[in-house]
Amino acid sequence: MRARIGLLGRIMLVLLGALSLLVVATFGIDRWQRSQEQWPYASRFPRLDQAAGIMALMRDADSARRPAILRAVNGEALKAEIVDAPPDVTGLIREPVLEARLHRLTGEGDIRAFTETAMLYRDDGPSDAGAAHRQRPIGSLALATYRLPDGRILVVSAIIGHRSPMPWLLGQPLSLWVAVLGVAVAFLVTAGARHELAPLRRLTDAVSRFDGRSAEPALVPQGAPEIRRLAQAVQAMQDRIVGLMGERSLLIGAISHDLKTYLTRMRLRAERIAESERRDRLVEDLDTMTALIETSLGFARGTAAEVGRAPVDLADIVAVEVAEHAAQGACISLSGEEVQDAIVAGDAVALRRVMANLIGNAVKFGRSSVAVVVRRTESACQVVVEDDGPGIPEGERTSVFSPYYRLERSRNRRTGGTGLGLAIARQIAEAHGGTIVVEVASSGGARLVVTLPALA
Question: Which of 24-28, 34-38, 316-320, 452-456 has the lowest mean pLDDT?
Fold first, then answer.
């Protein structure tokens, strides 16, 4: 039954359950509060203030208006009446502190205030406290008397059954406990939602790890039906992608083998041509075609992304590549070769191909000099290659990483190249968890920055 409830239904059930808990808890606290008859501090002074106001009204009111005022002021907390003789205060204790406050509030002196011991006053008259009620704490107003100007006596008595508008629990207002319960409810809702969404997070992690070469291990079906169906669909999609990638690799391998066979035959025949100039040009074309096919097939296979994970010294790789170009007469400088911690986890052959592509392009298109820098930051290693050539326009600094894209004004077919060098370099860098960006050099040429995660 639970497996048939959708994600939205589950979240709603969690929310309704938490709210129901809040309602039940609040109701229970309210019932408990109603069963208590002692509120030590909540209604002590508010009753005194109200009693003082009643006394002031009766003092200033006409005799004919007093009955109407009495009906108006009688309520849940206090009962007021006018009598001819002082009430019986047997069992009550006179409270000077309460009297002093009433004196200050009314400005009158003929006021008596009492707290109760054995007798408690209700709205229907006195009742025996020992039979059914507990005593209120000493100091709580039970009864107050005030002699009016006409000689009659105003009696203000506290009603035991009154409940304070601001109930207290364990010394704290009930609203505070409700707020605490609200926080608990929010925590429960959050925990429940996280539990229901945990399978979705695991599915997200599995999809993020998928690289197209092998499917992720099948996840145990968990969670709402929608998430289970999504996990099954993702698993089936991964299986199809892996199958397609495998078929593509087989197809590319077959094409590569056949093309190399025919190119080899053509080269052997070309070398038999007696005319040297024609033979050399034909062999050169065949070599160029072979290099183009090798590069294109390598990019299509995605072999550049299939890298190992071993410690690689970037400074050493860059130094070797720079030395080879310098030996061929290129004006190239290197700084940072002494950096000892420029170590990354990856494939040394693939990373050297990146450096060869970037440095080779800089040497090819730079006018007079190339500068290469190796450095280590807090958590990354960087290789910066700058040239003083025509540079790369800002609008094309992203496009140059696209396969077969060339800048016509400088990187045309006369200069050679297939348009795949930067695309392959980016493919390798991203497979290592890094990036390659194009910037403008201080000389106006191109500045390429390779950033790779450093090996801890």
Answer: 34-38
Domain encompassing residue 75:
44-163
Tokens of 284: 């050169």
Distance CA 425, CA 390 (A): 21
First to last CA, the chain: 49
pLDDT tens-digit series, residues 214-243: 777 777 777 778 788 888 888 888 888 888
| pLDDT tens, residue by residue, 111-157 | 998 887 533 334 444 444 333 334 444 457 888 999 988 889 999 98
398 alpha-carbon distance from chain centroid: 31
Does 448 lie in the same domain as 321? yes
Q: For residue 191, what are its two tokens? A: 């925990």
Strands 172-173 and 332-335: unpaired
Sign of CA dihedral 439, 444, 446, 447: negative
**Sign, CA torsion 79/81/83/86:** positive
Q: Could you tell me if 367 and 443 lie in one domain?
A: yes
Inside any domain, residue 323: yes
Q: At 176, which helix (H) or strand (E)?
A: helix 174-209
Phi, psi of 150 (to 5 degrees): -85, 5
Sign of CA dihedral 391, 394, 395, 398: positive
Longest dimension (CA), the chain: 148
Report the chain's mean pLDDT, rounded to a whole number: 78
State whether residue 258 is helix, strand or coil. Answer: helix
